[in-house]
Specification:
The protein has about 180 residues and is mostly helical. Helix content is about 45%, strand content about 0%. It is built from 8 helices and 2 strands; from the N terminus they run ααααββαααα. The protein has a two-stranded antiparallel ribbon. The longest helix has 23 residues.
Length: about 180
């Protein structure tokens, strides 16, 4: 029996083992679908895949040449990767990058939508070694998208299998992969 003041919508009680099983299932499927990145030392990073003026790729990235080049679009090598590298180098020098002097006559860096400087997963780009940071960030985005979708649908009282299926479908959907 409920009291009249108790809210009607209560968060569903999830068994203790269920989150661990779901996390392991998502991590297992992620490592199966991206086995070449997880196990074979290939990468999603394609900084040097785009033709450059220098023989070793982008300036300052001679030692950071990946062993594998993706065949998909290389837009990230010109848009996101240099910006993240600029933030990383600025933070290592001890300066907070509020301004990007390398774009036109300067650009307010903190206002750039492409960078998302304060997006929590962007901190992976600043902390981990440059050879792994792009892969870790992208795979963690897929994992968290599936996991949070699952938890949201379980909170809405869906059963385990439909919530798991929805999490997997969203995790590996076209917009997430692109």
């Amino acid at each position: 029996t409920r009291s009249p003041h108790e809210p009607r919508f209560l968060i569903m009680q999830i068994p203790r083992k269920e989150p661990l099983i779901v996390i392991l299932a998502f991590l297992g499927l992620l490592s199966v679908f991206f086995y070449d990145i997880v196990f074979l030392n290939k990468t999603l990073k394609n900084t040097s895949a785009t033709p450059q003026a220098l023989y070793n790729g982008v300036y300052g990235q001679g030692q950071n040449r990946p062993s594998y080049f993706a065949v998909q679009s290389t837009d990230s090598s010109q848009m996101e990767e240099p910006l993240y590298e600029f933030i990383r180098q600025s933070l290592r020098r001890g300066t907070f990058p509020l301004w990007n002097p390398h774009q036109g006559c300067g650009f307010p860096f903190i206002a750039m939508m492409e960078v998302g400087m304060f997006f929590p997963l962007s901190f992976i780009m600043y902390l981990f070694p440059s050879a792994w940071n792009w892969d870790i960030m992208m795979l963690s985005r897929f994992f968290l998208a599936g996991l949070f979708t699952y938890w949201f649908l379980r909170t809405l009282r869906l059963k385990k299998l439909p919530a798991l299926t929805a999490g997997l479908v969203f995790m590996f959907s076209g917009p997430m992969i692109l």
